[in-house]
Amino acid sequence: MTLLSIYRLLLVLHTVHRFGSMRLQCSREFCYFYDLTSNEDTFAYRYIPPNVDILTVENALMEHLDHSMLQGVPSFIDHVMVTNSYALRWVSVPKAVNSLMISTSSLQRIDIETNSTLSYLGIAVCNLVKVPITVQNAQMLEWLHITSCKLQGLNLASLCENGRLRVLNLMANKIRYVVNTSTRYCALYDTLASLTLSENLLTTVNMELFNVLGRMDSLHLQNNKIRALLGQLIHSMLAEVRLDGNKLKDVDLCEWVVPSLSIILLDRNNITMIPKCVKNITSVSMLTLRSNRLSTFTIESLAGMNALRELDISCNKLTTVTLSTEHFPADLEVINMDYNNLTALDLSFIPARSLEVRVSYNLISRFDVNATSRNVSQLSMYQNPIICAWHTPFLWGRDRCNQTDGSVLLVHNEHLRNACHN
Ligand SMILES: *[C@@H]1O[C@H](CO)[C@@H](O)[C@H](O)[C@H]1NC(C)=O
Ligand SMILES: *[C@@H]1O[C@H](CO)[C@@H](O)[C@H](O)[C@H]1NC(C)=O
Ligand SMILES: *[C@@H]1O[C@H](CO)[C@@H](O)[C@H](O)[C@H]1NC(C)=O
Ligand SMILES: *[C@@H]1O[C@H](CO)[C@@H](O)[C@H](O)[C@H]1NC(C)=O
Ligand SMILES: *[C@@H]1O[C@H](CO)[C@@H](O)[C@H](O)[C@H]1NC(C)=O
Ligand SMILES: *[C@@H]1O[C@H](CO)[C@@H](O)[C@H](O)[C@H]1NC(C)=O
Ligand SMILES: *[C@@H]1O[C@H](CO)[C@@H](O)[C@H](O)[C@H]1NC(C)=O
Ligand SMILES: *[C@@H]1O[C@H](CO)[C@@H](O)[C@H](O)[C@H]1NC(C)=O
Description:
19-stranded mixed beta sheet; 3-stranded parallel beta sheet; 26% strand; binds 2-acetamido-2-deoxy-beta-D-glucopyranose
């Protein structure tokens, strides 16, 4: 170590709680260590005050953050973060590290020591092309995020041994496939609760792959390029499936057996018909189909969905809807039909306890407020040739509506449809 670097590091002693141009800067709970260049610099770790529990290494200048550089981190540090280190390609993780985040680096390789105690590992913005093989050495791992990297696929077998992993988030990679080459039962199947593969390049997904993940309650597949869902999903725990922002045209749920499924998000697809057999999934409480291509809708297609509370079919191409029928989901609370092309609305018979109807930005010129069911507890019908609104169940009535000159609405509403694309 040069005299100069010793001098600089000793200065560190006096800069705790002080910000300046020093390489180790600490506040109450954090220390930042800038420009780590070599093993010798880790000498500075001894100046980290014992109340600090997060150490951030910013701008590590080497290609390989080797074993000894993390080994020397004081044991009272709970979280180590390595950020903005463009030279960094390879990190070796000693077994005593519990929580490690590596963000914005050129990471291509990470070696995790056998019997590692790592329980949180987050890697964001990197060059990894697959889930590192040494992740299987991290038997205590509960939480793994590899996001905004270059992963090309996911093989569930690569995490087979990770029998404590609960959260796996691989958002914003380049994943084109999900497979399973494992030939045996994996410990992972009994633990994984949440799987996120959003913002990738998936085009078809075999839903059967997920059947073995018995504890999974949320599956996030939004913002891919999915055109087809294959296979029979049979899953007793799954509560939430996100498929929004894909390229689905027809969705057929007839083969799904998902008795706990509560939320299905299908917004921003290319769907022309209510998903087949959706009404057989009677546990669903929220169904969203905003920004699709539905041209007609009848609530009868959802009859019997007695857990359904919220339905969103806004931003479609609806010209007709049928709501006044006895085949109605009995506990529906909100239906959103904003931004469609409806010209008439009949709410005369709505066998639901208390329904909020949103139908702004349409072209409704035929609506009989006098004949509206009292079960419609709230109505928002702005930007239509007839404007109506009430927000309290017992105060509604004929003075809640006004006729307007609807001539400008067509152009106007189309313009406002920008709201539909996010
Ligand atoms: C890992 O732990 C196992 C069981 O505790 C032990 O037998 C093995 O030697 C350890 N391996 C290393 C590399 O520490
Ligand atoms: C992976 O394949 C093996 C062998 O066919 C099977 O036992 C296991 O359940 C499969 N896992 C998944 C996630 O499909
Ligand atoms: C949706 O379908 C239409 C007509 O089939 C097609 O022209 C359009 O490109 C599709 N959009 C997407 C996002 O796939
Ligand atoms: C859907 O439910 C109906 C009525 O309960 C039943 O007759 C039909 O077989 C079910 N379809 C599927 C694919 O489960
Ligand atoms: C609504 O109707 C108008 C006029 O017929 C048409 O120009 C417009 O494209 C329609 N919008 C949608 C979303 O179908
Ligand atoms: C209001 O809803 C109840 C069930 O909650 C139903 O029996 C009744 O027929 C409905 N009335 C109208 C006018 O929609
Ligand atoms: C509603 O009923 C009132 C009288 O009860 C009547 O004056 C009004 O014109 C009716 N409105 C419509 C839209 O039929
Ligand atoms: C209808 O017009 C009346 C009188 O201008 C106004 O008080 C009321 O708020 C209007 N209703 C709606 C829904 O715009």
